[in-house]
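Input/output pair, single chain:
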Amino acid sequence: MNAVRPIAVKLDQDTRDRLKRLADAKDRSTHWMLREAVAQFVDREEKREAFRQAGLQAWEAFQATGKHASHDEADAWLARLEAGDEAAVPECHD
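Output:
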């Protein structure tokens, strides 16, 4: 089991007051609200970083191979998906 360890966060009084009002409105503690906020932030930022890394890997693969799908090919594929049709991803080519 992971140990739970405290961490200090300094907040200005206005933010503290806003947090307290929200916690009271939700019948939650400010501690619970802060833990939830941090968990959601970390989840979101991990997903953003994974997306950024995938983009960098795709760029490196393109630079190494030159393989790509054209704008028109990608646009047509997305239009088919938007229309509700099943469509295979366009083949990459030189």
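The radius of gyration is 23 Å. The chain has a mean pLDDT of 96.
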